[in-house]
Amino acid sequence: MYDHLKVFFGNSNPELASEICGFLGIQHGKVRIHAFSNNNIKVKIEENVRNDDVFVIQSASSPVNDNLMELLIMVDALRYASAGRITVVMPYYFYSRSDKKDQPRISIAARLVADLLQTAGANRILTMQLHSPQIMGFSRIPVDQLLPTQIFIKYFQKLDLSNAVFVAPDIGGAKNVSIYAKALNKDMVIMDKVRIGDKEEVQVRNIIGDASGRDVVLMDDEVLSGGSMLEAIDALTEQKVKSIYACCTHGFFSRNALDKFEASSVEEIVTTNTIPIKKRQAYRKLNVLSVAELFANAIRAIHVGDSVGALFWVDESEL
Fold first, then answer.
1. How many Cβ atoms from other residues are within 10 Å of residue 173's Cβ?
2. Residue 169 has pLDDT above 90, yes or no
3. Which candidate, 209, 233, 212, places its Cα nearest to that of 223?
4. Strands 31-35 and 41-45, bridge-based pairing
5. Topology (CATH) of 149-290
6. What is the DSSP string of 273-311?
7. 290-306 pLDDT per residue, tens
8. Could you tell me which of 308, 296, 293, 311 has the C-alpha nearest to residue 5?
9. Does 44 qualify as catalytic in the annotation?
10. pLDDT of residue 319
11. For residue 197, what pLDDT is reported?
12. What average pLDDT does the segment 15-20 reach?
């Protein structure tokens, strides 16, 4: 169907990658990844890719460093196999939270990842909702950032949220959350929080706006151990809200975070499948929405030279 389009993927999120290939209507590329006893790995591309338009899908799921190294070696193997163009598809960008120098003598690892990908042989990067858009500026090769805007809006429209208010977990997330509030004609509340060192703990200092008696949709770009969002849920519960729906694009859910959400007052925790979630059927409150079709459409657009932004963007001037 598509001339010279091939999709390969590593071990980070094979379920999502296979689903993307299904929407594209193609078989995934053949690759063999072998791990030696000394933890070194060998990647062999087992089909001809000369002059092909190749997409490599790998997400920053656990074990993050192993998956990053696997990605770099796979890109390098494709380059030496004379692939025509190599686009790295990262549903969740590696080291996306290390995007600024906020302490002395630390690395901006998100920039380093961009440099490593270019050195390995990548010609383009396709990713989903970066922790900070400035990460796109770290790369000397083109970066396309998808947003789950339409996916979440369609989901929220199915819920009975006639009395809803959208809540941004901090000042930095207000702009993103405002898109959803405007699109669904809802009010917005902003939480003022401070992060405590590197402990993945936060303290909510103030709530800007009134959410009492309302159905709350609390949104964030990603959840790691869940401390920030759970603290926000506790603060909102004290305001005597009617119900709380928690939502994030990237659900890493480390340190038994899902168990904590199950035990909390939240009605539902909604996320996407950019990161695979083990035993997700065991969690009653967890709802995982797929981004496979969006990524498939973006891959198709890049391959044929169409606009990627038109696939997901909401024009705020029309809201």
1. 16
2. no
3. 233
4. antiparallel
5. Rossmann fold (3.40.50)
6. TTS--TTGGG-TTEEEE--HHHHHHHHHHHHHT--SGGG
7. 999 999 999 999 999 99
8. 296
9. no
10. 40
11. 57
12. 98
Ramachandran area for residue 280 (φ above 0: left; ψ -120 to 50: alpha; else beta): alpha
CATH of domain 5-146+293-318: 3.40.50.2020
How many Cβ atoms from other residues are within 10 Å of residue 136's Cβ?
16
Band of the pLDDT at 318, cuts 50, 70, 90? very low
Pair type for strands 201-208 and 187-196: antiparallel
Topology agreement, domain 5-146+293-318 and domain 149-290: yes
Catalytic residue (choose from 193, 240, 242, 260): 193
Cα–Cα dist 81/42, whole Å? 15
Q: Per-residue confidence at 309, pLDDT binned at 50, 70, 90?
A: confident
Domain ranges of the chain: 5-146+293-318, 149-290
Backbone angles phi, psi at 316, to 5 degrees: -60, -25
